[in-house]
Design brief:
Layout: E1 2-3, E2 6-7, E3 12-16, H1 21-31, E4 38-42, E5 48-52, E6 60-64, H2 71-87, E7 92-97, H3 116-126, E8 131-135, E9 150-153, H4 156-165, H5 167-170, E10 173-177, H6 183-192, E11 196-204, E12 210-216, E13 223-231, H7 235-246, E14 251-259, H8 265-269, E15 276-280, E16 296-299, H9 302-313
Parallel strand pairs: 3-6, 6-7, 7-8, 8-9, 10-11, 10-13, 13-14, 14-15, 15-16
Antiparallel strand pairs: 1-2, 4-5, 11-12
Helix pairs in contact: 1-9
Length: about 325
């Protein structure tokens, strides 16, 4: 079928994994669609089982699953969901992965280690997905790990809308990049919010230990906004917050698309270093942030994903969603 916007595929169906249903419902609410009927269960031995409870033959299917904790279960559910849809004769399968797990293992930085980001991409390709939709990959070049189309969205518009509404309250604002690799993103957001820019150089010692170096820029008397793609254990952010406070910052806000919040992260953010934590629902938060709920704001990427899905379904350009964004991490 054709219309002015392009080819329209079979009926749109949106499904969700067990841990991503809340976000998928937000996506469907934006599009005025109903969440597809499917169930995922675990066998007694831990094996994942997916059963579609409705017909998908000839349909244009989207599966929303963030491969966050429990990472391996979610990865397997994603692959099995894809296989299930393919065997049920879906016309097209788009895997919507708001958060792409294993993304930090994207290169060999020492001998005898894997490149797991590529391995997971290979598994998804082998499962015969047709395309991928994701948000703020840890490294933009991971798009090239896939032998199929990847639509890489940025959550910057969601954060910009939030902070622009309170721009006057923020006063003299300085975007601080917690590492050199994130400078492009921080600079873009600084330009959007008419703010200053500062950079912290850091050196990663181990997967959980980071050495924070010097601050390049002036934060004296300013509100500091540290904006990154993800917060994992929180070690980098807390050390950076201490550094900017030592250099005269009056308020510190930490913002990140993906709230991994592993290990001691919640306990660390309960301390006085960070005044506010702003995250999205790309990873389900639930009761994990109960201890810091008073200082946590959760923004939804449901509308962003919903708009992208609607455009993909109608074969319309997704690139329009990339305009006026803060860039992507290198």
């Amino acid at each position: 079928m054709q219309n002015g916007a392009g080819t329209v595929h079979g009926e749109l169906k949106v499904f969700a994994g067990r841990h991503s249903k809340a976000l998928a419902e937000q996506v469907c609410a934006h599009m005025g669609a109903k969440l597809g009927d499917a169930r995922t269960t675990l066998f007694p031995d831990g094996e994942v089982f997916v059963k579609l409870e409705e017909d998908v033959r000839g349909r244009d299917c989207f599966v929303v699953i963030s491969t966050c904790e429990p990472v391996n279960e979610n990865v397997m559910e994603l692959l099995i969901f894809c296989d299930c849809l393919r065997r049920a004769s879906a016309e097209r399968i788009t895997l919507v992965m708001p958060y792409y797990g294993y993304a930090r293992q994207d290169r060999k930085d020492e001998g005898r280690v894997p490149i797991t980001a590529k391995l997971v991409a290979n598994l998804i390709t082998a499962a015969h997905a047709d395309r991928i939709l994701t948000i703020d990959l840890h490294a933009a070049q991971i798009q090239g790990f896939f032998d199929l189309p990847v639509d890489h969205l940025a959550a910057a518009p969601v954060f910009f809308e939030h902070f622009s509404k309170q721009r006057d309250e923020l006063g003299e604002l300085c975007l601080v990049s917690p590492d050199v690799g994130n400078v492009k993103v921080a600079e873009g957001m600084a330009n959007m919010l008419n703010a200053d820019l500062a950079i912290i150089n850091k050196r990663r010692i181990t997967g959980s230990e980071v050495e924070t170096g010097n601050l390049i820029g002036d934060v004296t008397g300013k509100t500091v906004l540290m904006y990154d793609d993800m917060i994992s254990t929180g070690g980098t952010v807390i050390k950076a917050a201490r550094l900017v406070r030592e250099n005269g910052a009056k308020r510190v806000i930490a913002a990140a698309t993906h709230a991994v919040l592993a290990g001691e992260a919640i306990h660390r953010f309960a301390g006085p270093e960070v005044d506010e934590l702003v995250i999205t629902d790309s990873i389900p938060v639930g009761s994990r942030v109960a201890e810091i709920e008073h200082k946590t704001t959760v923004l939804s990427v449901g509308m962003l994903l919903g708009e992208a899905i609607a455009r993909i379904h109608a074969d319309r350009a997704v690139s329009e969603l990339f305009r006026k964004i803060a860039g992507t991490k290198r």
